[in-house]
């Protein structure tokens, strides 16, 4: 006799064993247990679905149709919420792109470049022309030391001085001249 809690695989093995002996009533019993197993699985899945959907999770017994209808409504709510989030994020991206497109005129820029005076160029040339000839750039410490010595470089940053050293044509350094 078959036990009611057999697994589907055991039922199929039993079915093949009984069908080999030609028992049609055994096939009916196996079909009966397969259907019962399928119903148990369906009920279990409906209970799992009911637990997931918040509107019917706390309710007791509810028809399968109600569970499915509420699940559909819940999915629609989630879909609408996701669509709103995506729309708002796309609007933010569009507004950021518009902000990036706006070009600011050079005269309206907050940090306009300041032209180098002759005194500043001469100070940089005095301290850093040797780096041009050895094809190296001075380090931050060397630039800051020169800035402390030279009063003309007080309003400049070490990066400004480095950029001026990097562009030797602005210092009018001849490649034939060696100090």
TrEMBL record:
**Family matches, as PROSITE patterns:** BHLH, PROKAR_LIPOPROTEIN
Q: Which SMART domains match?
A: HLH
Q: Which GO-annotated molecular functions does the record name?
A: protein dimerization activity
Give any Pfam family that matches: HLH
Outline the extent of the BHLH domain. Answer: 26-78
Q: What is this protein called?
A: BHLH domain-containing protein
């Amino acid at each position: 006799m078959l036990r009611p809690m057999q697994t589907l695989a055991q039922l199929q093995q039993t079915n093949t064993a009984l069908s080999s002996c030609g028992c049609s009533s055994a096939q009916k019993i196996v079909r009966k247990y397969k259907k019962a197993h399928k119903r148990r699985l369906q009920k279990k899945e409906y209970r799992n679905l009911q637990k997931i959907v918040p509107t019917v999770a706390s309710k007791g017994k509810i028809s399968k149709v109600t569970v499915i209808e509420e699940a559909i409504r819940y999915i629609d709510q989630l879909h609408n919420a996701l669509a709103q989030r995506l729309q708002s994020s796309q609007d933010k991206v569009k507004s950021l792109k518009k902000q990036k497109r706006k070009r600011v005129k050079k005269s309206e820029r907050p940090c306009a470049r300041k032209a180098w005076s002759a005194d500043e160029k001469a100070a940089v040339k005095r301290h850093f022309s040797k780096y041009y000839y050895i094809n190296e750039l001075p380090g931050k410490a060397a630039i800051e030391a020169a800035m402390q010595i030279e009063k003309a470089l007080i309003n400049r940053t070490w990066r400004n001085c480095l950029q001026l050293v990097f562009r030797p044509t602005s210092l009018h350094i001849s490649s034939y001249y060696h100090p």
